[in-house]
Design brief:
Keywords: Membrane, Transmembrane, Transmembrane helix. The protein is α+β, with helices and mostly antiparallel strands. The chain contains eleven helices and eight strands. α4 packs parallel to α5, α5 packs parallel to α7 and α6 crosses α7.
């Protein structure tokens, strides 16, 4: 909201007109009524003068009201910013440098897993800054929900995506499990990182990223523009409350249960199975060691092909 001094500076002409018109009217109106405050003893043209001054005062007031209304509209419009491509990447990069918290809600957390976690941890470690990351994604143990999400993503882009993969129930489960694994892996390597994870049984088509400075809403379709609300806006607080309420209703993953576990720089199949068993996040019975290897790839080497990751796992 603008300060009073700023408002006064922007509306000085209207205020001055109102003061002059009002003051003069106060001096002339009594003479119209027969009260001679100035001692002039004359009422010639007084009625006309008063009428003109009243009109001027009304015009000045109308001017001030119009400016106030215009300022409110401009302020409301600036509260919502539409962000595209490169600007979105820049905003994320700037936020990673100084944020002490990151709240995420979305489908499977791909960007959070592949970019946000690493950047937040690297910058927080450099600044020796405690950081809290809250993650809410769909529940990978809910097969029906994962199927619904896979169908939704397939409907956006039929066939294979830009990585050459199709959206299937198993892929959605592996992606969500990889996000959990990545969060635990980074948590183990930076003691000032506090990680909270919850699994939702409701699918969302939006991704919410909230930092210390802003909240950004993006869509699963990467070409779609994002919407940004800065921290100074009431929308920020409203969405902050929304994320808190949603997180409380989701199924919590008690990350502290894995405190005594140790994940290698390149987690083995047994380590990953033990981790999810400890967290009470049940892997699908159909998942083989190859599936678990793929989860590790998605968590820590998202740019590697499935074939390369599998080959690397066999060499160990």
């Amino acid at each position: 909201m603008p300060s009073f001094a700023s408002w006064l500076r922007n509306n000085v002409d209207g205020i001055l007109a109102s003061v002059i018109a009002g003051t003069t009217a106060v001096l002339i109106v009594p003479s119209v009524l027969g009260i001679d405050l100035l001692g002039a003893g004359e009422r010639s043209g007084a009625v006309t003068d008063v009428a003109i001054l009243i009109v001027l005062a009304l015009l000045a007031i109308a001017l001030l009201r119009d400016r106030s209304s215009t300022a409110r509209v401009r302020d409301d419009a600036s509260a919502v910013q539409v962000v595209h491509g490169a600007d979105l990447d820049r905003l994320h990069a700037e936020a990673y440098q100084d944020t002490d918290r990151w709240l995420f809600k979305g489908g499977i957390g791909t960007h959070l897993r592949t970019v946000t976690l690493k950047e937040c941890v690297d910058n927080a470690r450099a600044a020796q800054r405690p950081t809290r990351i809250q993650i809410e994604i769909i529940d990978p143990t809910d097969e029906a929900l994962c199927t619904e999400y896979a169908q939704y993503r397939s409907s956006l882009n039929p066939g294979s995506d830009r990585h050459g993969e199709k959206w299937t129930t198993a892929r959605v489960q592996r992606e969500a499990l990889a996000t959990i694994l990545a969060a635990c892996w980074y948590r183990e390597r930076f003691t000032l990182l506090r990680v909270e994870i919850a699994l939702s049984r409701v699918m969302t088509t939006l991704r919410w990223d909230l930092s210390s400075n802003w909240i950004i809403l993006t869509q699963d379709e990467s070409a779609a523009p994002a919407v940004l609300f800065e921290r100074s806006r009431p929308h920020y607080r409203a969405y902050d409350r929304e994320l808190a309420a949603s997180f409380e209703q989701a199924k919590r993953v008690d990350v502290a249960l894995a405190k005594e576990l140790r994940l290698s720089d390149e987690p083995t199949v047994d380590e990953v199975r033990t981790l999810f068993g400890t967290l009470a996040v049940t892997l699908p019975e159909s998942f083989t060691d190859t599936d678990v290897t793929d989860i590790v790839r998605r968590a820590l080497h998202p740019k590697d092909s499935p074939q390369r990751a599998a080959s690397s796992q066999r060499k160990r």
